[in-house]
Amino acid sequence: MNVVVFASRKGGSGKSTLAAHLGSYMAENARPTLLIDADPQGSLTLWHRVRGLRDLGLHVGTKHLAATLAKARRAGAEWVLIDTPPNAEAPVAEAIWHADLVVIPMRPGLFDVDAVQATIQMCRDLKKPYAVVINAAPAKNGSDDLMVRDARGAMQALDVPTWSGQITHSPKLSLSLAHGAGVNEFSSGSPASEEIGSLWRALTRSFEAIKAMTSNEPQSA
Ligand SMILES: Nc1ncnc2c1ncn2[C@@H]1O[C@H](COP(=O)(O)OP(=O)(O)OP(=O)(O)O)[C@@H](O)[C@H]1O
Ligand SMILES: [Mg+2]
Predict the structure, then answer these.
(1) pLDDT tens digits along 10-21
(2) How many domains is the chain built from?
(3) What is the pLDDT averaged over residues 173-193?
(4) Which of 12, 97, 101, 175 is 20 to 30 Å from 66 by CA-CA measure?
(5) Is 45's C-beta closer than 6 angstroms to any atom of ligand 1?
(6) Is residue 199 within 8 Å of residue 22, measured between CB atoms?
(7) How is residue 170 annotated by DSSP?
(8) Do the beta carbons of residue 31 and residue 106 sit within 8 Å?
């Protein structure tokens, strides 16, 4: 079971957006998936209600996280996607503690690059694998936009793993959520849909790498 936590102290960076679109992608690909809405704002819960389907499980709240994850594992969940609030408080730390991988969405801007560092530090303190995903980026024009290049440079200088792709700013990503869908369902084959698919493949590869690393670790006697 792959537990992905979407975390960033910066509000509006795209945590709920990425969790919902990836959830929809997993539903479409028949991957048993549980969404956990650990943010009292309830964005993921609202999207799930608008969706009105039972293809994705939903657990709301931060209580009993360990028990909820154990139950999901027993039920055969392949993916668990946990959305968190924009702060660095105890419930976010607890979610990160349970993560196999933390996705830190980051818009490419000075304030965003600065704000994300508290979340990166939490992941480092808890020794959790993490990756920054550049979200709501200006469209590529052959190569990365200058803003994206700057953001990547800042992450590289801080030795922060950053997904090589990007999620481009696209109204389709907002519009599809308003219809309870993911962009893969709402606008299949669109560039936004391709980007979510490519993020999903990158996550899958990361999990394979993480699992290979942990299975090679010497076992304690
Ligand atoms: N790639 C994108 N293209 C267009 N709009 C986007 C994109 N990513 C996010 N948005 C929009 O930006 C807003 C904030 O996104 P979202 O709610 O996912 O951020 P968040 O990190 O979950 O915020 P919060 O910290 O408040 O929970 C939403 O209106 C969402 O539709
Ligand atoms: Mg949110």
Answers:
(1) 999 999 999 999
(2) 1
(3) 97
(4) 12
(5) no
(6) yes
(7) -
(8) no
Specify if 221 maps to a domain: no
Candidate from 8, 16, 92, 119 with most ligand 1 atoms within 8 A of CB, to mutate: 16
Distance 79 CA to ligand 1 centre (A): 22
Question: Among 22-36, 78-92, 200-214, which stretch is predicted with the lowest mean pLDDT?
Answer: 200-214
Between 189 and 213, the more confident residue is 189
Residue 86 has pLDDT above 60, yes or no: yes
Instruction: Please compute the mean of the pLDDT values over residues 173-195 and round it to a whole number.
Output: 97
Query: Ligand 1 pocket, 169 CB below 6 A?
Result: yes
User: Is 220 inside a domain boundary?
Assistant: no
Place of tokens 């360990």: 66
Nearest-atom index, ligand 1, CA of 18: 18
The parent domain of residue 210 ranges over 2-215
Largest CA distance in the chain: 54
DSSP characters over 48-92: HHHH--SSSEEEESSTTHHHHHHHHHHTT-SEEEEE--SS-SHHH
